[in-house]
């Protein structure tokens, strides 16, 4: 009996003492580095950030539409303060800023062909010695001598004035640089007024420049160039009368003005 009483006070090794088991040493060991899911999570966040950055870079906000939408929302929610969302610009501002065109070879080429057709309609015969084309210099409008000047003279014919008016209007609208090249044939000229073909070509090119300047006095002078080519740049052989007639011409050349020449 005494032995049983002694044993009953202390639990034996085989008996379950109850309560949580004592922690083992290997339970406190952590693996080195971040868990595998962290890498996947970081990649996903990086992709999301890149996606939203791309959305922001592609997005454009139109101020007028935003103001109109803001005003509509304020009206819907009963906001009493009224603010104008859009102020219509005056006509001069619209023409000067909103709808002004930059120089474009396509616009100039198509526009000059339209001007040529308009001049043909003004001419009683319906035929004019005007050619419109594009080369390395820009957009070229070649006008025959008979259509602009009398032979051996440098006074513009009145019939060409409406044509030059249309040409200048289109050039100004497209902010084009204007170069006037006057050409002659190879037959030498020597009169009391013109000592050579170069003198005749110079007077003709300057006459065109003066007329254009008279139409628009506000046109910057650096936008206009006079080039007396004389007989140095024939397009056709001067051996025949037909070739010499085609070489007697004035070429109006339109191209993009240098940056320092562009009007403010």
What does this structure look like?
- The protein is α+β, with helices and mostly antiparallel strands and 264 residues long.
- It has helices spanning 2-9, 36-58, 63-76, 91-98, 105-122, 145-148, 161-173, 197-215, 241-247; strands at 130-135, 138-144, 176-183, 224-230, 249-256.
- Strand 1 and strand 2 (138-144) form a beta hairpin.
- The radius of gyration is 43 Å and the shape is elongated.
- Mean pLDDT is 78; it is low at 82-100.
Condensed summary:
The protein is an alpha+beta fold. It is built from 9 helices and 5 strands. It is elongated, with a radius of gyration of 43 Å.
Features:
9 helices, single chain, 264 residues, alpha+beta, 60s Ribosomal Protein L30, Chain: A, 5 strands, elongated
How is the secondary structure organized here?
Blueprint: H1 2-9, H2 36-58, H3 63-76, H4 91-98, H5 105-122, E1 130-135, E2 138-144, H6 145-148, H7 161-173, E3 176-183, H8 197-215, E4 224-230, H9 241-247, E5 249-256
Parallel strand pairs: 3-4
Antiparallel strand pairs: 1-2, 2-5, 3-5
Helix pairs in contact: 5-7
Structural class: alpha+beta
Order of helices and strands: HHHHHEEHHEHEHE
Number of helices: 9
Please summarize the sheet with the most strands.
5 strands, mixed
Q: What strand line-up does the widest sheet have?
A: 1-2-5-3-4
Level-2 CATH architecture of the domain at 105-257:
2-Layer Sandwich
Count the E strands. 5
Helix fraction, binned, reads 40-55%
- Gross morphology: elongated
Please report the first level of CATH classification, the CATH class of the domain at 105-257: Alpha Beta
Uncertain ranges: 82-100
Mean pLDDT, all residues: 78
Q: What is the CA-atom radius of gyration, in angstroms?
A: 43 Å
The CATH topology of the domain at 105-257 comes to 60s Ribosomal Protein L30, Chain: A
Distance between the termini: 120 Å
CATH homologous group name of the domain at 105-257: OmpA-like domain
Amount of beta strand: 5-15%
